[in-house]
UniProtKB/TrEMBL annotation:
Function: Acts both as a regulator of telomere function and as a transcription regulator. Involved in the regulation of telomere length and protection as a component of the shelterin complex (telosome). Does not bind DNA directly: recruited to telomeric double-stranded 5'-TTAGGG-3' repeats via its interaction with terf2. Independently of its function in telomeres, also acts as a transcription regulator: recruited to extratelomeric 5'-TTAGGG-3' sites via its association with terf2 or other factors, and regulates gene expression.
Boundaries of every TERF2-interacting telomeric protein 1 Myb domain copy: 124-178
SUPFAM superfamilies for this protein: BRCT domain, Homeodomain-like
InterPro entries, sorted: BRCT_dom (IPR001357), BRCT_dom_sf (IPR036420), Homeodomain-like_sf (IPR009057), Rap1_C (IPR021661), Rap1_C_sf (IPR038104), TE2IP/Rap1 (IPR039595), TERF2IP_Myb (IPR015010)
PANTHER family hit by this protein: TELOMERE REPEAT-BINDING FACTOR 2-INTERACTING PROTEIN 1 (PTHR16466), TELOMERIC REPEAT-BINDING FACTOR 2-INTERACTING PROTEIN 1 (PTHR16466:SF6)
Domain BRCT, first and last residues per copy: 17-100
Highest taxon above the source species: Eukaryota
Descriptive protein name: Telomeric repeat-binding factor 2-interacting protein 1
GO biological process: protection from non-homologous end joining at telomere; regulation of DNA-templated transcription; telomere maintenance via telomere lengthening
Compartments reported by the entry: Nucleus; Chromosome, Telomere
Keywords: Activator, Chromosome, Nucleus, Telomere, Transcription, Transcription regulation
């Protein structure tokens, strides 16, 4: 462990203090000067990296009393150097959001202001949550990346950093936006429409439509008798039900005795049956009796 001296207090800091959640060193950048020389050993001995040049992924550090007009015009977010000192003193990685300069003003950091005003860390308001949800709802497929969150930070969707907004959404808000999705809401079908649909189906169904035309509302027994006479021919059975059997018009009806002859496979009876019912009639009757 590295030893850190601050105000006469001896403490030991972890060599992995400035590692991110992936186990990679946190990268910092500060403009050359006395402060950089002072922070160099604190960062490197605690596992971090102090970049020689400004990198796009590096955390930008600035001394509260040394912010310049050029830094303000850069429209980039800077973290107070007090963050490094406090992390080392407390030997833990603190919330970097509390040390971000508001509008790049060389004022007290949030952490310092908290000590003076007795206020806690900057919390998310209902307006902040609503702003995040409304923005992400348009591009929710990008929530796992960083680009959309960095864009939100540039546009000032909230006063929090993009890392903080992303963490807030993934831990607390993503379920709310899912509940608001219209896909998850079941579609309510009015009862009247459902009844109408059933009515339409009943009218387009051929069997109920035919049965309504059947005189005297033939029961199931009569229907089965008609099918038996017609060897399973539905249209012919319907003719029997509606108009009755006409010996002069319709082909002969199979009798029980003829069915027994057909099932007996008696070759001597076959010519007689063919003469009475025809070869096609025998074929249909055999298929019908086999299916029963």
């Amino acid at each position: 462990f590295a030893r850190y001296m601050d105000g006469g207090v001896n403490s030991y800091t972890s060599p992995v203090l400035f590692l991110n959640t992936k186990g990679e060193p946190m990268r910092f950048y500060i403009r050359p000067g006395p402060t950089k020389i002072q922070l160099q050993p604190l960062i490197t001995r605690s596992g971090g990296v102090l970049c020689r040049t400004q990198e796009s992924s590096a955390i930008l550090l600035a001394d509260p009393g040394e912010t310049s007009i050029a830094m303000e015009r850069a429209r980039q977010f800077y973290i107070s150097t007090q963050y490094i000192h406090d992390c080392v003193v407390q030997n833990q990685q603190l919330d970097i959001e509390n040390y971000r300069f508001s509008n790049l003003q060389p004022a007290l950091t949030r952490a310092t202001a908290r000590k003076h005003r007795g206020q806690g860390r900057m919390c998310y308001s209902l307006e902040d949550d609503a702003a995040i949800i409304n923005f992400i709802a348009k591009c929710r497929h990008e929530v796992k990346g960083n680009r959309v969150w960095q864009q939100m930070e540039r546009q000032g969707i909230t006063t929090h950093s993009w890392q903080s907004m992303k963490d807030r959404f993934l831990k607390h808000l993503q379920y709310k936006i899912s509940d608001k999705s219209p896909v998850r809401k079941p579609k309510k079908i009015p009862i009247e429409e459902s009844s109408s649909s059933e009515h339409n189906i009943s009218q387009t169904s051929p069997e109920p439509h035919m049965l309504k035309k059947t005189p005297n509302k033939k029961d199931l027994v009569e229907v089965m008798k008609a099918l038996l006479k017609a060897s399973g021919d539905v249209s012919l059975a319907l003719t029997y039900l509606l108009g009755g059997y006409d010996r002069n018009v319709h082909r002969p009806i199979w009798t029980r005795q003829d069915d027994e002859k057909l099932l007996s496979c008696d070759s001597s009876a076959l010519p007689q049956l063919q003469e009475k019912y025809g070869a096609q009639g025998i074929s249909k009757r055999q298929a019908f009796l086999k299916a029963m």
